[in-house]
Hints:
This protein is of the alpha+beta class and about 290 residues long. The chain is built from twelve helices and nine strands. Helices cover about 40% and strands about 20% of the residues.
Amino acid sequence: MAGFRLKVATRLGEKIALDFGFESFPVCPRKIAESRDISVEAKPPEVTGVSGAIILAGDSAMIIYSTELQNEGFENFSIAHELGHWFLPGHPEEIAKAGGMHLSRASFTENTSIELEADHFASGLLMPSRLTRNLLGESQIGLDGIVQLAGVAKTSITAAAIRSAECCPYPVAVIVSKGQKIAYAFLSEAFKSLGRLSFLRKGDPLPTSATSRFNATPENVRLGRRSTEQTDLSIWFDGPRDIELDEEVLGLGGYGYTLTVLSSEELPEDPTEADDEDAQLEESWKPRFAYGR
Ligand SMILES: [Zn+2]
């Protein structure tokens, strides 16, 4: 059922974007807050380790967002996440019960269900499926398309990567790592259909790969360098051999995380998935939307 609630959250985000008249990129969460008389303010610098917060006060609210990373996409995603707590059914009640103030934490600490729902809401709000599909077109999703989507939609690169995988008919795997360990992974429906694949879990060691070599030099991550190599499905997932994949790697900067995108245009579109929009929103296991970049 968790998957269903997350789909509903994504759809509500898309609907709110439309309701507020956003029919092209970028959707601006600040404007939506403004028209609801919700004030949006930068977080005081002495409060750290929090990506944002929402404070409920009767019929109105105040949103606070972190500027620590000095990244517009990250800030927009944070504000959209907090708006999720305002619009999603049950969230204001749950926050009111906890005293009326909710702190959202960056990175990959144990997320409650309302955190995941707010992440999916933010993803739908900033990247409605129709706009996202139009932008990405029919082509294979690679790092270039993801970086372009993040720029046009003004959202974080990791959120754009996950959304691309959701909306793309091709096999795509998005993997976020730190050091030699996996932080989380998200597989498109078509990728899952490549075979019985082992799950990549949080804390698993990276396989010997372009990513593990890239992360061995922390500067690569910090300076936002890129690397591209060929890899094989079996290296990452114990899946069938001889399925060649592109492995594109991008350092996500000061946050210390690395994005890896595995994809191939050699692979056929999965016919069972093509017009099942809902299936594309199903996650293989709890994805963690990164706040960093
Ligand atoms: Zn939150």
